Amino acid sequence: MSEWTEDILTDPYERMTLDLGTDPDGEGAITATLVRRRFEGEPRAAMIYVHGFTDYFFQTELAEFYADRGYAFYSLDLRKCGRSLSDGHTPHYVSDLSLYDAELDRALKIVRSEVPDVPIVLSAHSTGGLILPLWLDRMNLEPGGARGRGIAGLVLNSPWFDLQGAPWMRTIGTQAIRAFSKAKPRTPMKLPSTDAYGVSLHHEHGGQWDYDLVWKPLAGFPVTFGWMTAVRRGHAALHRGLDIGVPSLVLRSHRTWFSRKHHEKTDTSDAVLDVRQIGRWAGCLGGDVTSLQVRDARHDVYLSNDEPRAEAYRLTAEWLDRWIP
């Protein structure tokens, strides 16, 4: 196992590289990267955060929110994402979402070793918000389940619970994607290009946030047939119903606004996912689900403008106070 070294975010953030061996999808050696915010004293809980597609951890405000509440904060850059992306990798490519169990299990084990006697809360955004519930559902089939491994709750920020777009994309379109993926899994799908969401965020284009455009390009990474097939299998499993074993909070914007180019509504809407689908499928997590809208929020509710962002944090704090001992 690697040691903690200074992260690109600098003090007090550190990183550890997790060697995952040879990629089962045939793209050579792969790693994941665990990032932590150093915590002084004894934490009351711990948080592990997982990013979405075309994303990586840079949201220090989110980490400081949890640190101020007494949480030891960790974040995981998954294989082929952000800090874990290397030459020869197809960004974010994975043929099955369950392959992420390897780095998730490793991260959980490390966090538990560092903070052994406190509850652990998980949080994820967008595609990460699909990956984590599926992982928890599989974990819950094991002796002791999620709670037996110290997990106390799940916070999802605009999770990707279904395929956005026309209804036919969720039926015959999905079958066509699956067929193409068998022959050319890494071939990019021909999707409309849009940089609206990226432009709304990045400081060089008038947004509030600074991040690496190599790891999070404005128009996003290409979506491949194989990766989309893995996601659609994940959607199908969610829709059949999961049992994640812990209470959950699901946050989303109050509306969706799709646009090829940046529009003023991009700054006050989910420009990536259909928020109605998030609300529709939230109950499939199982257990105690709190599903809430944040008016005028962006796709990443914690990267919204000041007022909706403050509301997202307020709702998160209230939920934590209610559910996490």
Topology diagram in text:
Elements: E1 5-6, E2 13-22, E3 29-37, E4 45-50, H1 60-68, E5 71-77, H2 101-114, E6 120-125, H3 128-139, H4 145-148, E7 151-157, H5 172-183, H6 196-201, H7 225-240, E8 248-253, H8 275-281, E9 289-294, H9 306-323
Parallel strand pairs: 4-5, 4-6, 6-7, 7-8, 8-9
Antiparallel strand pairs: 1-2, 2-3, 3-5
Terminal CA distance: 31 Å
Write the H/E string, N to C: EEEEHEHEHHEHHHEHEH
Provide the helix percentage: 25-40%
Strand order of the largest sheet: 1-2-3-5-4-6-7-8-9
Class by alpha and beta content: alpha/beta
CATH topology: Rossmann fold
**Unreliable stretches, pLDDT < 50, 5 or more residues?**
none
Total helical elements:
9
Q: Quick one: CATH superfamily? A: Alpha/Beta hydrolase fold, catalytic domain
Strand content: 15-25%
If you average the pLDDT, what whole number results?
A: 96
Q: Main β-sheet: number of strands, strand sense, barrel status? A: 9 strands, mixed
Shape type: globular
Radius of gyration: 18 Å
- Total number of strands: 9
The CATH architecture designation is: 3-Layer(aba) Sandwich
- What would CATH call the class? Alpha Beta
| Structural domain count | 1
Could you please describe the fold and organization of this structure?
The chain has 325 residues and is α/β, with parallel strands linked by helices. It has one domain (5-323): Alpha/Beta hydrolase fold, catalytic domain (Rossmann fold). Helices cover 30% and strands 18% of the residues. It has 9 helices and 9 strands. It has a 9-stranded mixed beta sheet with strand order 1-2-3-5-4-6-7-8-9, sandwiched between helices. Residues 42-203 form the Serine aminopeptidase S33 domain. It comes from Aeromicrobium flavum. This is Serine aminopeptidase S33 domain-containing protein.
